[in-house]
């Protein structure tokens, strides 16, 4: 044994081949924490001091290779300032350069995920062999930074500038065969042949058959691009990537600039450019929030894993109601491998549900994600039925009939008689109390809410709503099923609107007040879209449907009358009264026409403006900042109330629900992180000023005032 640490060991075989193995103790994955990087430095120095070594294999003893740096350290490290970060990266560059400069051939044996810093480790070696099931990539731009340990330097010299820009700016995970085509790896083999393939490459390199020194020279020198090729590779890419990333995500464009600035430089100079750019991006608010988002996502996943441990497997599901929503649920279940019965009382409804599922599978075939055989196989996982004949073998039922408490109550009590005693019943309700729906059930402990968001196949969030009598086993099974469907489940407690809709409707309340005070709803949309929302509130209401919004608002007003009940008509009610329901009937705040692809395209409609005039109480001009404040404060305050009321357990879960459920701008980190960024005291002052004019919807809670006085925040 040449070296032994907590995460890294180095040993040689009898033929002079050394293997540096990553195997972080007490962890299921390998990651490059500060201590692991320190061990890597020691291990490389041990290799430099050892005589008789003829080659090195860098390998992993875990199912993954290395998933990247330890992101839990990022906030603490990034807080130390730009100079510290530059120096930190330069120290890592020195370690990685030492691997690249070892006096014998080197190869990485990539057995699983090699991402970020893990990918950059592999780029230091002369060769790379990869398991056919592994993936590789540089996802740093998704965290608001650029690769900082040589990714922007080595990858373009390995696979070409245009390919490297695509990988780095896109932050994608790439399959083994794609990596092979690009030239990022040299060999792709089944996992059990990985070591043999690595040894074969080293043998051929030592025999002179493979020129490993020339490989190094290519990685260390400037990129071979003339000025015209540079312009084509970089300037064109900047325009395309800027359009795709949008103005709020600067890291993809910065990554292209780093590659461009370093293109004419040697290794060390290009690495210095990269280190500085990394440090600058690491200090941005966008990076801080996206790192926080990643950490919050880990909290949500760990919590879901704990729930899953209490669950029995869902091997057969069922959905009641075969409309667009039921068909979407059936598709999602079937596409991820859980067979599902789709029941309705009408043949035409079943056909509508199957049509929706077929359409979604056909899109997967068009995109090359499935072939027709796979589509047919997955579609066969959906079994339409008009009866309860096979429901005795169902593990979990999703009720997805109309949003009417009497209809849902009748359907749930009926299906309870047809399933086994351990079958979990769930309701895909967006507003109706789970406790209310459980009142007539014989086994309320087996019942909870399972709120999907529309469209089911795109929206990642599922709210799992716990009622007063819901058991841990029911919650666990529902969480497990949601995860098996590829969704992110967040467990919340029962209340009007649960978490997401309870928070969304004060946002719509702020919008209604703005219109009444003379704001142009199209301008409000534009301001909020520039703020980062995927669509403004008027457009979002058209997508949700005005009738749905009116119904949900009635539920909210009944549950929280002090701040959500309104005596006067709102613009939303006026639209509904005039049969302007939004996209579903082609007219709402906007009118809708079909574009070339047959999708609804919004256009301005004078009639909508005429109708809105009936609710305008006074004419007033608003700055962008005033519009943002009047929209965001009620949403953020209701998120605070949900946390204080115990509807959601943690700030992390609350913020992730906002991002996954209603499209809260990810680069702003969520509602509670947005309050932290504003400053809790400053936010309370702003809310108080608005509450004086606009009422209880804008009034801070007592606990939030206490936090402001104590200088506390939601995230440490």
Walk me through this protein's architecture.
The protein is of the alpha/beta class. It folds into 3 domains: 3-283, Alpha-Beta Complex (2-enoyl-CoA Hydratase, Chain A, domain 1), CATH 3.90.226.10; 314-494, NAD(P)-binding Rossmann-like Domain (Rossmann fold, 3-Layer(aba) Sandwich); 501-710, N-(1-d-carboxylethyl)-l-norvaline Dehydrogenase, domain 2, CATH 1.10.1040.50. The protein is built from 31 helices and 20 strands. The strands form 4 sheets. It has an 8-stranded mixed sheet, with helices on both faces. The protein has a 7-stranded mixed sheet with strand order 1-2-3-4-5-7-10, with helices on both faces. Strands 6-8-9 form a 3-stranded mixed sheet. Strand 11 (317-320), helix 14 (324-335) and strand 12 (340-343) form a beta-alpha-beta unit. Helix 23 (546-559) packs across helix 25 (571-577). It is globular. The model has no long low-confidence stretch (mean pLDDT 95). In the central section; belongs to the 3-hydroxyacyl-CoA dehydrogenase family. In the N-terminal section; belongs to the enoyl-CoA hydratase/isomerase family.
Distance between the termini: 42 Å
- State the CATH class of the largest domain: Alpha Beta
Number of domains: 3
Helix count from the secondary structure assignment: 31
β-sheet strand percentage: 5-15%
CATH superfamily of the largest domain: 2-enoyl-CoA Hydratase, Chain A, domain 1
Coarse structural class:
alpha/beta
The main pleated sheet reads as:
8 strands, mixed
Mean pLDDT: 95
Order of strands side by side in the largest beta sheet?
13-12-11-14-15-16-17-18
Domain 3-hydroxyacyl-CoA dehydrogenase NAD binding: 317-495
Catalytic activity: a (3S)-3-hydroxyacyl-CoA + NAD(+) = a 3-oxoacyl-CoA + NADH + H(+)
Keywords: Fatty acid metabolism, Isomerase, Lipid degradation, Lipid metabolism, Lyase, Multifunctional enzyme, NAD, Oxidoreductase
Protein name: enoyl-CoA hydratase
